[in-house]
Design goal:
The structure holds two protein chains of two kinds. Chain A is α/β, with parallel strands linked by helices. Helices cover 33% and strands 20% of the residues of chain A. The longest helix of chain A is centred in the C-terminal third of the chain and has 19 residues, at 175-193. Chain B has one domain (2-428): TIM Barrel. Chain B is built from 15 helices and twelve strands. Chain B has helices at 16-22, 35-55, 76-86, 99-102, 105-118, 132-137, 145-161, 200-209, 220-236, 258-268, 280-283, 291-299, 316-333, 342-356, 372-397; strands spanning 2-6, 59-62, 91-94, 97-98, 123-128, 166-169, 174-178, 192-196, 213-216, 246-254, 337-340, 360-364. The longest helix of chain B has 26 residues, at 372-397. Classes of the chains: A alpha/beta, B alpha/beta. Chain A binds chain B through residues 145-148, 180, 183, 186-191, 194-195, and chain B through 136, 139, 141-144, 280-282, 285-287, 291, 294, 309.
Chain lengths: 270, 429
């Protein structure tokens, strides 16, 4: 039941509806080759950007919109990242997608980490890009609820003026619709991660048990949303994980330093 | 009709330009707070409540805010406890306890029961959602704000009326042993009033539960809209709404001369008043408002609360000048702010009573950096000259409050359609 959607950019991706848990999950799909699950951030799916076009040459990107975000309806019983991780575990089983490579961004990185500790065998390789989920030993996770969405977006990159795709973020919807989608995304994120804000105190301890799952952490050296110190904690917690720090980048290395980001991903996922 | 005295009890002595630069009273650094000065003010404000009772106000209305010099009372139950003991006959009206923010509704049930006991059954328990800033300050999840309000409401009523011990398992609140050994002396429980500004959901909630709805200085047109929604909901519930269902809080500054009153009124615009209560991102966190309310707020022109993005650059001095000139004029013109001598105030308040026909009138005053003497004078003039005139009008109009007339006792017309509860034609008079 695939159909072309208005969000499909240059016909590189399509939008599917997958029935699960009594709702229809919206799944953005693009590219060809081995599937790669992409878990989006706290503000929702930011749109099809250059890093996706690059990776889509050799991978099929599967980007579900989390329940309560974008076009996927909310599920009232999902009240934590743990719940959401279990939900996606079910999706992988029902769609016979496991084991799969996964990449998660910010909140999506936290979801991937929780999925990994619930069932490491559902992943082949895991990439976490500046994930929340662990309380940084130095600094704090920047508070989404203390600022406007636009201020949050500006904070998420080192320099908006020096980030070519900054203006393409969340540009796939009409501005008014996007405002309402952001509001919904922030409501759902509040349900998932309000207190403690954006972390799970037991996560680092669980991660220590993740032996044998190839895991990479990608962090902008100047991340003002999730301090790099959290990246070092993740790195310390996940046995055998690698930490790739990208210079002159903030919370969105995938658009702040796309070439280096894609090159690293290709190597790691090869 | 019941006449209430209300004031925000501000912390006086903060730099106005600092508030305006940040466009927010909420979150101003408490390095500006001097505890000894604050203590003196807090006691003055309590004395003023006692004075209001002596002057003949029927009720003393209390509120609370957090993390702001806008209102010094952060825990109204403490103030209410003091007043419960030192006043004699005035109702103590809480407008209101922010249920979703408090976190422990069972403890609230106990605190309120004690206030009712100590006061000899004078508590009116008002329940609100708390502004977005209160939500932020207390780390209460805005996405669950209304769910928590509803659930806390259910628990408190049960704790007050059902024999304990019993168990309460909600979505947000879980108690395995509900059995408070303090219960209100008013049976089955103190009256509950629902104060509100914009949310139609609160109006419907009030009407369904037969609680009075108290509009907090909303523009008259939108107030009539709220009244009509209440009356419609009441009709669906099988009763005719009347003045006993409604309360209205009006800002009034009275002095011996127009010039002096003007001066007080301009002080009320200190720091932009409600316009700068808190930045929009704090006032309206995600989930706090329904979509419909967000859309309505974007169109509202008469409210003092606003939900528009704050410009990145602006001239602070110019902004302050604007508050004290054009915004002040706007507030006066819309009657959000009434300023004058008793002789000029009386006809305007009478007109207000004719239009919205409330059973409860809250006179809200003494906000801004107003000195003690002027505060006391304004109260005295209201009590001696204005209130007697209002009582006459209320009598003529049959404005009974919810203690004089039980909500739900008025029969609905056979057609099932509610009779008018406000007089909108007067708006243009």
């Amino acid at each position: 039941m695939a159909h072309t959607s208005n969000t499909a950019e240059l016909n590189q991706c399509s939008e599917d509806r997958i029935p699960i848990a009594g709702i229809e999950l919206t799944l953005i799909k693009g590219g060809s080759g081995e599937p790669l699950m992409v878990l989006h951030e706290e503000l929702g799916y930011p749109g099809w950007l250059r890093w996706q076009s690059e990776l889509a040459r050799e991978r099929t990107l599967l980007i579900p919109m989390h329940p309560g975000f974008g076009h996927t309806p909310r599920l009232d019983w999902i009240g934590s990242i743990h719940d959401l991780a279990s939900f996606y575990g079910r999706l992988l089983r029902e769609q016979a997608l496991a084991p799969i490579d996964v990449i998660g961004f910010s909140l999506g990185g936290w979801i991937a980490a929780e999925m990994a500790i619930q069932n490491p065998a559902q992943f082949r390789r895991m990439v976490l890009v500046a994930p929340v989920g662990i309380r940084p030993p130095q600094g704090e996770i920047f508070d989404l609820y203390n600022v406007t969405v636009n201020a949050y977006l500006r904070t998420s990159v080192r320099d908006p003026g020096d980030t070519p795709e900054f203006s393409r973020l969340f540009a796939h919807l009409e501005p008014l619709e996007q405002l309402e989608k952001w509001e919904e995304a922030r409501i759902e994120t509040a349900r998932l991660a309000w207190k403690p804000y954006m972390y799970n105190p037991s996560l680092p301890h669980h991660l220590e048990g993740l032996k044998g799952l190839p895991a990479a952490l990608v962090w902008g050296a100047e991340d003002a949303v999730v301090p790099l110190s959290a990246g070092r904690e993740y790195n310390k917690a996940i046995p055998g994980s690698r930490l790739k720090v990208i210079a002159r980048a903030g919370h969105r290395p995938e658009i702040e330093s796309t070439d280096e980001f894609v090159k690293y991903l290709r190597e790691f996922l090869a | 009709m019941m006449i209430m005295y209300f004031s925000e009890r501000p912390y006086i002595g903060i730099p106005e330009d600092e508030v305006v630069r940040r466009r927010s009273f909420f979150g101003l650094s408490n390095t500006y707070f001097d505890a000894n000065h604050g203590a003196r003010l807090l006691n003055e404000y309590i004395d003023e409540k006692v004075y209001a009772e002596e002057l003949g106000f029927d009720a003393l209305a209390l509120n609370e805010h957090h993390g702001t010099p806008f209102c010094m009372v952060s825990v109204m139950n403490v103030e209410a406890s003091v007043l419960a003991r030192v006043t004699k006959k005035a109702k103590i009206v809480l407008v209101g306890n922010p249920l979703p923010v408090v976190g422990n509704p069972l403890r609230l049930a106990e605190e309120l029961a004690m206030i009712d006991m100590i006061s000899g059954g004078r508590l009116v328990s008002g329940w609100i959602r708390g502004t977005g800033c209160e939500t932020i300050f207390n780390s209460a999840n805005p996405a669950y704000n209304r769910e928590m309000l509803n659930e806390a409401h259910e628990l408190i009523i049960k704790a007050w009326t059902q024999p304990g011990p019993f168990r309460f398992e909600g979505k947000h609140f879980h108690y395995r042993f509900v059995c408070p050994w303090v219960l209100p002396v008013q049976k089955p429980h103190p009256q509950i009033w629902i104060p509100g500004i914009f949310s139609p959901e609160s109006v419907i909630f009030a009407a369904r539960n037969r609680y009075p709805y108290i509009a907090l200085s909303t523009g008259l047109e939108s107030t009539i809209g709220m009244w009509n929604l209440y009356a419609q909901t009441a009709a669906e519930e099988g009763y005719q709404a009347g003045p006993e269902c409604f309360g209205y809080q009006q800002k009034v500054f009275v002095a011996e001369t127009e010039e002096k009153a003007e001066e007080l009124g301009r002080m009320d615009m200190f720091g932009g008043n409600w316009m700068n209560y808190g930045r929009p991102e704090w006032m309206f966190p995600p989930g706090y408002n329904s979509k419909e309310v967000n859309r309505r707020m974007a169109q509202a022109t008469t409210s003092l609360v606003r939900n528009v993005p704050i410009p990145e650059h602006f001239d602070v001095e110019e902004e302050i000048r604007k508050y004290h000139t054009q915004d002040y004029d706007r507030a006066r013109k819309s009657e959000m702010l009434m300023v004058g001598t008793p002789a000029t105030i009386i006809p305007r308040l009478r007109r207000l009573l004719r239009i919205i026909r409330p059973g409860v009138l809250g006179l809200c005053q003494n906000d801004g950096p107003i000195g003690r003497q002027a505060r006391l004078t304004s109260m005295r003039l209201l009590a001696e000259e204005v209130i007697p005139a209002l009582r006459e009008t209320a009598k003529e109009l049959g404005l009974s409050d919810s203690f004089e007339q039980r909500i739900g006792a008025r029969a609905l017309a056979p057609s099932g359609r509610p009779d008018p509860v406000a007089c909108a034609e007067e708006l243009n008079s």
